[in-house]
Amino acid sequence: MEDTMTTSQGGESDMDYSDNEYYDYYNTNDDIDIEQLDPRKIDPEYFEFSCLLEEQVDRLLNETVETLSNNLQIPPSLAKVLLHSNQWNISELTKKFNENSTRTLIAARIEPATPPGSLLLTRYVNCSVCVTVQPLDRFYSLSCAHMFCRDCWSMHFEVQINQGISTGIACMARNCIVLAPEDFVLKHLQRPNMREKYQQFSFQDYVKSHPQLRFCPGPNCSIVVHSKEVKAKRSTCNQCKTVFCFKCGCDYHAPTECQVIKKWLTKCADDSETANYISAHTKDCPKCHICIEKNGGCNHMQCYNCKHDFCWMCLGDWKSHGSEYYECSRYRENPNIAHESVHAQAREALKKYLHYYERWENHSKSLKLEEQTLEKLRSRINQKVMSGLGTWIDWQYLFTAANLLAKCRYTLQYTYPYAYYMDTGSRKELFEYQQAQLEAEIENLSWKIERAETTDRGDLENQMDIAEKRRTTLLKDFLDV
């Protein structure tokens, strides 16, 4: 997947989508039994990966090093340096070697350095770092032939390692860029704790430079995720259960691309003070104007005073949202804004940003509020079980519904930065239609879960199925990988 936004490329038609056309398009596969289909074909988030321990990662890296070492007939330590510098791409390094573009470099690095002819005539040499005269057999050099005494090499390596440097340790000579291979460094480290620290830092560098490996970002987690496909797909650590994007290592953000979500998060951080006013938890009922606090994740609000049903986001009558189209999520751009003044354009840009940011932030808060709803659900179910109204197993479907709701709302939250950066056109219209459909079904599901006591199980499970189909369809069409 490219790291740039590709939401309005060539080939996009200028056709208009009516509600009926959208409906037919969207419901084509509604009768298909998802469970009977291959997940590789129907699940747009399907991703093959494995969670490895450090020993398994070492084995994987060493096998790659051994392969290159045998292919090019070079020492393993040099093979590791070359692989680390070239993202562990054996085929690319072999190709360069066959084209003679790296043979000179490799030959220079594997040729043992010998002291200049004048030094061969004496048994003692003056070290240019510590300025002491020592026996020649205490001097060592890399392929660059810059010779220093053993103690200076050891001190140089320890200083570099204490600064967090390992694979990037270079020769001590001024302006020399020759890197010290692993075996050379370990030979000059006497203290066991320094050797251990060097190997730990080197391991981290090797993993970070390998495109098919990614450290689990979970706190204090040592798992490394491995996949042969470098894609922005959802990875889940089997140890700490942290979910993240394999490609960038950040929070999972489908359908938004890695570079776009970084740009969005940076913008949100820069404009956080501007958006502070929308972070309030209270709004007035549009009918009786009494102050209402949002204490659940659902945006379908009912005033406790006048029982008026309205949308928390736009304060519109909930009936006007309907099930066919959820207009609240779409931003209506000013078609004549290009002809307006600079100040008017700036105000329009801020208005557009706040529209998307408010919905992004609202779903983030809804996810947190629904965690509280889940706790209330546990308490309510416990009371029912204690009263003899079924067993815990009988009520498990509510927890399944709550988990699915969180999954759908999480995806919906990340559709807003995606839509914000999309160019106007038929593709954006299609995306907004699917986004609106998903949002409507999510709110219906949230409303039913929060009122589970009066909700029929079959009705709730049907709503779960509809919401997940909406989510999957959107990702199939817009998750570019």
TrEMBL record:
SMART domains assigned: IBR
Biased composition (Polar residues): 1-11
UniProt-listed Enzyme Commission number(s): 2.3.2.31
Protein name, as recorded: RBR-type E3 ubiquitin transferase
CDD domains linked to this entry: BRcat_RBR_TRIAD1, Rcat_RBR_TRIAD1, RING-HC_RBR_TRIAD1
Domain (RING-type): residue spans on this chain: 123-332, 288-332
Any single GO BP term: protein ubiquitination
Keywords, ordered alphabetically: Coiled coil, Metal-binding, Nucleus, Repeat, Transferase, Ubl conjugation pathway, Zinc, Zinc-finger
InterPro entries: Ariadne (IPR045840), BRcat_RBR_TRIAD1 (IPR047555), E3_UB_ligase_RBR (IPR031127), IBR_dom (IPR002867), Rcat_RBR_TRIAD1 (IPR047556), TRIAD_supradom (IPR044066), Znf_RING (IPR001841), Znf_RING/FYVE/PHD (IPR013083)
Superkingdom classification of source: Eukaryota
Protein's organism: Psylliodes chrysocephalus
Pfam family, one: Ariadne
GO molecular function terms listed in the Swiss-Prot or TrEMBL record: ubiquitin protein ligase activity; zinc ion binding
Chain spans, region Disordered: 1-20
